[in-house]
Amino acid sequence: MKIILSPSKLQSERSLFKKKRTVLARAKQLYLIERLQAMTYEEVKSFYGLKAQMANTVYQQIHSLSSDEYDVFSMYSGIVFKEINVASYDRRQIDYLLAHGVVLSALYGVLEADMAVRPYRLDMTKKLGDINLYDYWQELVDDYFADVATVVNLASREFSRMLKHYRGRMLNIHFVEEQTSGKLKVVTVRAKQARGLMFDYMVSNCIEKVDDIKHFNEAGYSYVQAISKEDDWYFVKQLAD
Questions:
Q1: Which helix (H) or strand (E) holds 111?
Q2: Which among 40, 153, 232, 234 counts the fewest CB atoms within 10 Å?
Q3: How many helices and strands, by DSSP H and E, does the chain display?
Q4: Is 18 exposed, middle or buried, given 0-12, 13-18 or 19+ CB atoms closer than 10 A?
C-alpha cells in the first residue's frame, strides 16, 4: 500500500533525517533544472505567471548553487503538511512513513520520505518547451507503482493523474461539508487540512488494513457509507447544531 500526496508550494529549509537518499531519477530531474535555468528572469516571470518579488525568489531558487538539501516531509510545509506531525513519530511510525508515504512531484517524479530535495516551484500542468510533464514522468510512475496493490489517494487531481495507467486499487478519499441547503460541498482549505490529518492518522496508527481508515474522525469529518462507493469514500463534516 502507498499513500499519495501532492507537494506544496510553501516550503521550508529543514530536515528530519540526517542521512538522505538520492531521488529515483536524478538525471531526469537535473535535465528539467537545466531547462528552467536556460530561462531569463522575464521568461521565468511569464512562465509561472508571478509578480516581480515572487518571480525573483523562484529565479534565485532555480539558479541556486547551494548544496543544502532537505527531506520530503520536512521541506514541504503547506496546509496539508502542517497536519503531519513527523517530528513526533516514533521508530515504528517512521518506518511506516518510509514504507508507505509518497509525494508526487513535477520536478522529482516520485518522492519517498527520506529522499533529498531542494525548494522549487513547478506544476504538472506547466509545459517546458516540448516537454509534457505527465509524459515525462510516466515510465517512472508506472514502474514504481507496478507492484503496489493499493493506493490511498490523498492527492489533488493534478497529481493523482500521474497514475493514469495504474491497475491496482485506487482508493479515493473525499472530504465534504454539509450545507444549510442540504448539499455537500468541498471547502478547499479544510479539505486540505483533512488530507493531512488523514495521512497523519494512518502513520500514527500504522494502518495496514484500508477498512481501518473508516474509523478516522477528526476535525468534524466522519465516514458516511450511504454516499460512498467501493473505491470512493466520503468523509462528511456535519452542520453544527
A1: strand 109-112
A2: 40
A3: 9, 12
A4: exposed
Cα(180)–Cα(175) distance, integer angstroms: 17
d(C-alpha 40, C-alpha 45), whole Å: 9
User: Could you tell me how far CA 1 lies from the centroid of its own chain?
Assistant: 16
**Dist. CA 80–CA 142, nearest whole Å:** 25
Are residues 170 and 11 in contact, defined by beta-carbon separation less than 8 angstroms?
A: no
pTM: 0.94
How far apart are alpha carbons 208 and 205 in whole angstroms?
Answer: 9
For 102-114, give one letter per residue: b (16+ CB within 10 A) or e: bbbbbbbbbbbbb
- Please answer whether residues 162 and 124 qualify as being in contact, where contact means their C-beta atoms are separated by less than 8 angstroms: yes
Q: CA dist 229 to 93, 174, 232, Å?
A: 29, 11, 5
CB contact set of 173 (below 8 Å; sequence gap of 6+): 152, 153, 154, 195, 198, 213, 233, 235
Q: Is 165 helix (H, G, I), strand (E, B) or coil?
A: coil
In this predicted structure, the answer to whether residue 67 has a pLDDT above a threshold of 90 is: no
